[in-house]
């Protein structure tokens, strides 16, 4: 589920355009050693005008990853690269704009199928499939400035840290292990 970006070929207009932009960059092939997966709102059809394309990857050698990212994308509009820590893990993030899309390349020393971005997307996708009425409620909150996970948690009445508690909710519902 969600592991191949070409599902966007038959998706909505934004998904098709996103797929074309990713293909034009040859991103999935150029970064295949890092197991890239497109995550976020575009794949599950709850994006808004400001939604970006999040590509998550498993990275163990951050210096090599940074070098490759700079070689491939540093000439793209608004290119930025930064190091940070999220939930105690080192992260390298690169952002740039290509073909009208803001890209965020996210490298973390963790398998992509275990990263929160992927787990959130799987949980959110399953919840939308189970209850299609959630879609409009979440999109309305996103248009008011909410991030995706806080919007889902508000609609579902999940208290506390939305990034952690959405994962707990997904586990409790049997959506993820």
Describe the fold and architecture.
By secondary structure, the chain is α+β, with helices and mostly antiparallel strands. It folds into 2 domains: 5-110, 2-Layer Sandwich (Beta Polymerase, domain 2); 117-172, no CATH class. Helices cover 44% and strands 21% of the residues. The chain contains 8 helices and 5 strands. Helix 5 (116-130) crosses helix 8, helix 6 (134-143) packs across helix 7 (148-156) and helix 7 (148-156) crosses helix 8. The two termini are 14 Å apart.
Describe the structure concisely.
By secondary structure, this protein is of the alpha+beta class. The protein has helices spanning 13-25, 27-30, 41-44, 62-73, 116-130, 134-143, 148-156, 162-172, and strands at 37-39, 53-58, 77-86, 89-98, 101-108.
């Amino acid at each position: 589920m969600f592991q191949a970006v070409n599902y966007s070929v038959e998706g909505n207009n934004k998904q098709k355009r996103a797929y074309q932009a990713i293909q034009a960059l040859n991103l999935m092939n150029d970064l295949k050693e890092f197991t890239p997966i497109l995550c976020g709102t575009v794949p599950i059809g709850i994006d808004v005008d400001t939604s970006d394309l999040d590509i998550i990857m498993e990275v163990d050698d951050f210096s090599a990853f940074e070098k490759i990212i700079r070689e491939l994308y540093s000439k793209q509009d608004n290119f930025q690269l930064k190091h940070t820590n999220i939930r105690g893990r080192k992260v390298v993030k690169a952002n740039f704009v290509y073909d009208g899309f803001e890209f965020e390349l996210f490298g973390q020393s963790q398998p992509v199928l275990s990263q929160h971005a992927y787990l959130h997307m799987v949980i959110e996708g399953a919840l939308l499939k189970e209850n299609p009425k959630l879609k409009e409620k979440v999109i309305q909150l996103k248009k008011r400035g909410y991030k995706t996970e806080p919007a889902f948690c508000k609609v579902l009445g999940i208290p506390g840290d939305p990034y952690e508690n959405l994962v707990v909710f997904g586990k409790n519902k049997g959506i993820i292990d």
